[in-house]
Amino acid sequence: GAYDLYLRGRYAWSKRGEQGLRTAIALFNDALTRHPGFARAHAGLAMAWVVLPVFTTSVSADSALAMAQQSGHRALALDSSLADAHLAIAYAHKMRWHWQEAERHFRTAVQLAPDDATAHHWYGVHLYAVGDVTPSVEEFRRARELDPYATTIALDGAIALYGARRYDDALTEVRRGL
Question: Could you give the angle at the alpha carbon of 121 between the alpha carbons of 95 and 163, nearest 5°?
């Protein structure tokens, strides 16, 4: 059913890359065909669209971010407690340099899902981008606790540590990530 398609979409999303994300988008759309009011599938669709431009130039960033925000807002209209929807909307705002809106949605995502490594990771990237290095390092520390084997968390966290002038710690994170 729709929930099975959603779970398969989450699995495809976790693989990243253009193919994984396009598969996730197709699976989330299939879930929504079966159950148009399935808020989690809308949120999953938002999460897939928001990161797709990182992995391909076959879709414009503007159109992908617009799709992400549209799907994220549909999800929130159905269920305002979905952290993934807030997270996708926040990431889209960050990519457009809409810092205050991004901050609001990142904070909400972290509050709704305090044990979600991706929420802490992406919020850490946002904080670093706006110059809040110390809280950024803390978000990466929490993300690393939640997902100690994620290479991207280690490497992005190393950048934040370097920005905080914690060079030995940054080097340790780079080595751990590699």
Answer: 80
Q: Residues 83-129: pLDDT tens digits?
A: 999 999 999 999 999 999 999 999 999 999 999 999 999 999 999 99
Q: Which of 113, 114, 116, 94 is nearest to 103 (CA)?
A: 94
pTM: predicted TM-score of the whole model, two decimal places: 0.93
128, with CB counted inside 10 A (0-12, 13-18, 19+), is buried
Q: What is the rounded CA–CA span in Å between residue 48 and residue 45?
A: 5
Helix locations, the chain, DSSP H: 2-15, 17-34, 39-55, 61-78, 83-95, 99-112, 117-129, 133-146, 151-163, 167-177
Do residues 83 and 119 lie in contact, with contact meaning Cβ atoms separated by under 8 Å?
A: yes
Look up residue 109 and give its two tokens: 């995502």
DSSP string, 31-52: HHHH-TT-HHHHHHHHHHHHHH
CA-angle at 158, arms to 153 and 164, nearest 5° = 130
